Amino acid sequence: MTRFRFTGSPIDTDAARRELLDSGAGGYASFEGWVRDHNEGREVTRLEYESFQSLALTEGERILAEASRRFPVKHALCIHRLGSLELTDMAVWVGVSAAHRGEAFDACRFIIDEVKHRVPIWKKEHYRSGDSGWVNCERCAAAPQHAHGHDHAHQPPAHAQPPVSEEPA
Amino acid sequence: MNSPAAAIYGLILAGGASARMQRDKAVLPYQGRSQLDRAFDLVSRHSVKTFVSVRPSQSTEPTRARKPLIVDSVEGGGPIVGIRSAFAAHPDAAWLVVACDLPFLSDAALERLFAERDPRMVATAYASAHDGLPEPLCAIWEPAAAAALAAFQKLGGDCPRNFLRSHAVRLLEPRDRHALDNVNTPEEYRLAQGALDSTPAANPIQLKIQYFALMREQAGRSEESLETSAATPADLYSELTARYRFTLSRDQLKVAVNSEFAEWSRALRTGDAVVFIPPVAGG
Questions:
Q1: Which of A51, A149, A154 sits opposite B252 (nearest CB)?
Q2: Which domains does chain A have, with CATH numbers?
Q3: Model confidence at B18: pLDDT above 70
Q4: In DSSP terms, which residues pair with A49 in a beta bridge?
Q5: Are B11 and B98 in contact (CB under 8 A)?
Q6: Predicted local distance difference test score (pLDDT) of residue B3
Q7: Residue B67 has pLDDT above 70, yes or no
Q8: DSSP letter string over B212-234?
Q9: Domains B8-195 and B205-277 alike in fold
Q10: pTM for the full model?
Q11: Residue B259 and residue A55: Cβ atoms within 8 Å?
Q12: What is the pLDDT of residue A164?
């Protein structure tokens, strides 16, 4: 079973959580990213997510493998939603079980940070004012030296109006 | 006196930190394939069985994890620990030890190593074209080296070249002085790629391009098949920007070829599928 997945329908967190159960695990940490009604001072009404799936699945699995290498986790899963999402919908879910809470929290944080930064997923924000824009990746622009196999940084795209940097999730 | 020589197993060293390259050298592509895959196939053509030597922290990295691994007993021990771990796993074997970052290494160079092998020595190795010293990371290491390596490390030794300098080695003069050139920096990598990919790109090739997000909206399509004389993704992006007036500059993008991140300078071939990746925004 792959540990990084996409879904076109609402994420079933109960089923996902059950996949993490382990008699050696003393706890579990999860993160849910939700669709928020504002970003960079603009009123957001909905989001659209799309992905380059064949590479995204590979890169997502790499991130989960890295998390398992860095932290002594029992199980780790990440599920990302694609398509059109409304306010308060869940866009992404990360869950980690581990012997102790510290590594569960740390691995969960690592996974969501890396997924936002590395996996080829894009989101388009639709604004109350009727226009829309593709959200840029703030962390790429802020951390040009971040090393993960690419030697350049993303800069805010010229089309972003205004430059969108706050992260809804 | 002449006991039969030990069977030769292959060991690809892929445990380096790639500090100067600033990216994992094992997965660097040449002609569309990772260094590790190329080295593994080359060595497999000459050895009974082939393994990849890795540090414990690398054992789940996908390019490595697909291969039979010999995992170092300790983290950060360097090549000598990799070689000793191989002897520990298969004490009766001799080991053809090859670093993964030798893009010019050829079948001919390995065949000669086998032909000139002297199993009474601790190793059969090439002399460096640069300083004449033995090259430990393209050499046949005999089983007798195992105990000598243990003694050497106990005395604080950690450099396999120094080990070979102080032991009986069959030393060969290289015929191709670049066969063992290794690639440590981005600039060396660029030059090596150019040397290996120096195929004239005058003939048009057929590519499949997929567009996502902003690129899709600006191109007005989600995919197309294209005939082009662009030799690299960088050339291709220039050509398509002229056509579609893409607003993102190349340094804001990454590029994927055949569903894997790729260099802008890699050679494109007919049938390649190319995706330009604008800044990502998952979560």
A1: A154
A2: 4-36+54-121 (3.90.1170.40)
A3: yes
A4: A83, A123
A5: yes
A6: 63
A7: yes
A8: -HHHHHHHTSSEEEEEE---SHH
A9: no
A10: 0.52
A11: yes
A12: 38
Output the CATH code of domain B8-195: 3.90.550.10
- In a 3-state reduction of DSSP, which class is residue B59? coil
**B205-277 CATH fold:** Ubiquitin-like (UB roll) (3.10.20)
Mean pLDDT of chain B: 90
**How many Cβ atoms sit within 10 Å of the Cβ of residue A89?**
16
**Lookup: tokens for B111:** 């065949």
**Distance from the A21 Cα atom to the nearest Cα atom in chain B, whole angstroms:** 22
Residues 59-118 of A with CB under 8 A from B: 59, 61-62, 65, 68-69, 80, 91-92, 112, 115-118
Q: Which pLDDT score, from 0 to 100, does residue B19 have?
A: 82
Nearest to A165 by CA among A148, A132, A140: A140
Q: How many CB atoms lie within 10 A of CB B167?
A: 16
ipTM of the complex: 0.80
Report the alpha-carbon distance of residue B222 to residue B227 in Å, rounded. 17
pLDDT digits (tens, 9 = 90+) for A114-167: 999 999 999 999 999 999 999 973 333 333 333 333 333 333 333 333 333 344
CB–CB of A143/A157 below 8 Å?
A: no
| Chain B interface includes A38 (CB < 8 A) | no
Closest CA to B226 of B244, B198, B206, B254: B206
Helix axes B145-154, B79-89, angle to 10 degrees: 140
Q: Any idea where the domains of chain B sit in the sequence? A: 8-195, 205-277
CA distance A23 to chain B (A): 23
Does A63 score more than 90 pLDDT? yes
Q: What is the pLDDT of residue B55?
A: 92
Q: Is the confidence at residue A27, as pLDDT, over 60? A: yes
The CA distance from A91 to the nearest CA of chain B, in Å, is: 6
Query: What whole-number distance in Å separates Cα of residue B30 and Cα of residue B189?
Result: 9
B79-137 confidence digits (pLDDT tens): 999 999 999 999 999 999 999 999 989 888 898 999 999 999 999 999 998 888 999 99
Q: Which amino acid does the sequence have at B211?
A: Y
The Cα-based distances of B140 to B36, B117, B124, B125, B152 in angstroms read 19, 8, 5, 7, 18
Angle at B140 between CA B138 and CA B146, to 5 degrees: 115
Q: Which of B27, B210, B280 shows the shortest C-beta gap to A118? A: B280
d(CA A101, CA A117): 24
Identify from A11, A52, A82 which residue to disrupt to test chain B contact, counting B C-beta atoms within 10 A and taking the largest count.
A52
The upper half-sphere exposure of residue B140, i.e. CA atoms within 13 Å in the direction of its Cβ, equals 28
